[in-house]
Amino acid sequence: MKQKETLWNIMDNHDLDKEEAMDDHVMSSLDTPLRPDAFDLSDDEKIAIIEQHFHGIMHALGLDLTDDSLKGTPARVAKMYVKEIFHGLHPDNKPYARRFENKYKYNKMLVERNITVYSSCEHHFVPIIGKAHVAYIPNEHVIGLSKLNRIVHYFARRPQVQERLTMQIANELKQALKTDNVAVLIEADHLCVMSRGVNDVSSSTITAEYSGLFEQDQYRNEFLGHIRTK
Ligand SMILES: Nc1nc2c(ncn2[C@@H]2O[C@H](COP(=O)(O)OP(=O)(O)OP(=O)(O)O)[C@@H](O)[C@H]2O)c(=O)[nH]1
Ligand SMILES: [Zn+2]
After folding, report:
1. Cα(6)–Cα(181) distance, integer angstroms
2. Of 37, 72, 93, which marks where a domain is finished?
3. Which of 42, 109, 184, 200 is deepest in the core (most CB within 10 A)?
4. What is the CATH number of the domain that holds 16?
5. Are 174 and 217 in a shared domain?
6. Is 55 one of the annotated binding-site residues?
7. Interval between CA 9 and ligand 2 midpoint (Å)
8. Does the complex come out with an ipTM higher than 0.90?
9. What positions does the domain GTP cyclohydrolase I occupy (predicted)?
């Protein structure tokens, strides 16, 4: 049972029947790679372990951890990881997007653009900073505007690659809105490209996912037109 609960916990799909989901669940490439025991520890237990390890990293770098300014850093970093920048690893922190009936029968495109993306590159653990633009064409349901931002923020607050972040957001929107008519475009700067390695401060990365009606040029172009308008 413990194992089953854990499998359920790592799933991002809140719409599936729980038992059915547990029976059917196979890790897909869309899932953030997590161990089955990922949620066996409490946040406080995780913070204590990370603090200890980060202390070790700073020590190995030769830093004096008795220094006033440095001594609190391991605890600060640990708390920041668990409670802030990797907050979206835990399904309990997933935003709940209540569906409302599409009473007005609005059947055109809704675009939420320039949603701030603060994420972390899973290869180097440095920031990815950018903007997400999301759109949908409703069927029977709509959700609150802020939930679109919250869904982006939730998936961004994980170690990520931009492609998977894009797909996870698109997938969640499809489930939350009960429609395939979803578009997600992310433009972002990767600090791992800008501040180290290839040291290119002028390049940026664009990823996009289009499904349902957005696979058609007409809708895709309308979406791209909206996000380009100032
Ligand atoms: N596809 C993809 N690659 C990413 C993303 N973020 C970082 N990377 C790349 O992941 C790769 C990791 O490759 P490695 O060769 O193992 O890392 P590295 O030696 O630090 O590579 P350099 O950055 O080229 O110095 C790098 O090319 C990064 O630019 C992302 O969101 N998507
Ligand atoms: Zn990186």
Report:
1. 31
2. 93
3. 184
4. 1.10.286.10
5. yes
6. no
7. 27
8. yes
9. 50-227
